[in-house]
Amino acid sequence: MLSGLMNFLRACFRPKSDQYSHTSLDTGGRQDGLLWYKDTGQHVNGEFSMAVVQANNLLEDQSQLESGCLSLNELGPYGTFVGVYDGHGGPETSRFINEHLFQHLKRFTSEQQTISVDVIRKAYQATEEGFLSLVTKQWPMKPQIAAVGSCCLVGVICGGTLYVANLGDSRAVLGRAVKATGEVLAIQLSAEHNVCIESVRQELQSLHPDDSQIVVLKHNVWRVKGLIQFYKRIS
Fold first, then answer.
1. What CA–CA distance (Å, rounded) separates 223 from 201?
2. 13 and 46 in contact (C-beta within 8 Å)?
3. What does the alpha-carbon distance between residue 47 and residue 140 come to, in Å, rounded to a whole number?
4. Among 225, 127, 104, 230, which residue's Cα sits nearest to residue 171?
5. How is residue 27 annotated by DSSP?
6. Which CA distances in Å does 189 have to 29, 54, 172?
7. d(Cα 104, Cα 100) in Å, to the nearest integer?
8. How far is CA 57 from CA 24, 31, 53, 90, in A?
9. How confident is the model over 119-139, as pLDDT tens digits?
């Protein structure tokens, strides 16, 4: 069950053009050895670039940028969607998110004629339900797909507001320039769901009181069921 609250913050972004663009590492990304990247480009709400270093034999991660979207009059003319999907155990989940999450977000935004915390949560839930359905269908032929997963960190800029939604142990950080000193402050915008954090372990244990192995200390690292360090909860 997905639970918790989205963080939403005021942002100093304003639309600069009426151009729509789509960017992901799957569409036109460049590779230099184990480095996958897209150079900085101008989009509706500023300049964006992407980079990822491949850690496994197969690139399991995805990132996505949709700019010039979510065009509802009452929210301002245009918005920007940014997603980072940290896959583990394989690329299937992160690719599925890349293909479906934004489409669900557009659908729910259109239906409710607004972008909101509830709309973003519904898009997450619809994406998860869709992947669970895929796992059910593929289970007889490909049982290992049940062990594939992904973190899901999303930022949506619309109407001058930045919404940040996180599932897993990725982190969104805002760099804010201090004019007086010229330094840049790092401001954390999301909270990780990592069982190395005591409060997260306590929450998991309270949710699963009959499972003594729900959180296990393995090689001096806390892990869910002795396998992974994060669990899903939208915040």
1. 9
2. yes
3. 45
4. 230
5. B
6. 27, 25, 5
7. 6
8. 20, 14, 11, 10
9. 999 999 999 999 999 999 999
- The single-letter code of the amino acid at 230 is F
pLDDT digits (tens, 9 = 90+) for 48-59: 777 777 776 777
Q: Which domains does the chain have, with CATH numbers?
A: 7-191 (3.60.40.10), 193-235 (no CATH)
DSSP 118-146: HHHHHHHHHHHHHHHHHHHHHTTT-GGGG
Longest dimension (CA), the chain: 62
pLDDT given at position 219: 84
| Lowest mean pLDDT segment, chosen from 9-13, 53-57, 61-65, 127-131 | 9-13
Q: If we measure between CA atoms, which residue out of 225, 190, 227, 186 comes closest to residue 205?
A: 225
Global pTM reads 0.76
